[in-house]
Design a protein that fits this description.
Number of strands: 8
Helix content: 10-25%
Number of domains: 1
Order of helices and strands: HEEHEEEHEEE
Oligomer: single chain
Strand content: 25-35%
Radius of gyration: 15 Å
Structural class: alpha+beta
Largest sheet: 6 strands, antiparallel
Shape: globular
């Protein structure tokens, strides 16, 4: 019998269960029971990855970030000031994550707004994530993309 897809998986995702993927990254969802959880990912080597979004109250988000070595008082911001990557010019409004993935997941960012951006989110096994937060509301939207999977 085919395995049921996790209902939180983004449409078109080949992800297994969120819990299986979170375990690979030594990550747990915030204890405040976040809403509108969505994900795409893979727990199997090679190619482990996790794209995750959810909504949660600001105090819960701040606590979640602080538990993972993020200085919530010192965010970078998106849109950024732009810059260069070698010979490539980076537009200040270039999305902070892979654009085709953002479209597939329905992650819509407004370049006229300022978002908090962190690239120091670290789990117990050393997995690293880039995190973008829409800080406008008391209930915040959090977008996370793994950059490195840590050791067991």
């Amino acid at each position: 019998m085919p395995e049921q897809q996790d209902p939180r998986a983004y449409s078109g995702s080949q992800a297994g269960s969120l819990e299986e993927i979170l375990k690979e990254f030594s990550l747990e969802l915030p204890s405040c029971e976040p809403e509108k959880v969505g994900f795409s990912g893979n727990a199997t080597f090679p190619g482990q990855k996790l794209n995750l979004s959810f909504r949660a109250p600001k105090r819960c988000v701040d606590s979640f970030l602080a538990e993972h070595q993020v200085d919530v008082a010192d965010p970078a911001h998106w849109p950024s000031g732009g810059g260069r990557d070698g010979d490539r010019v980076i537009s200040p409004t270039e999305p902070p994550f892979v654009e085709k993935d953002m479209k597939r997941f329905g992650w819509k960012l407004d370049p006229s707004r300022e978002y908090n951006f962190y690239d120091s989110f670290k789990t117990a096994n050393g997995s690293l994530f880039r995190v973008l937060i829409d800080p406008r509301d008391a209930v915040q939207t959090v977008y996370m993309v793994s950059t490195t999977v840590g050791g067991g």
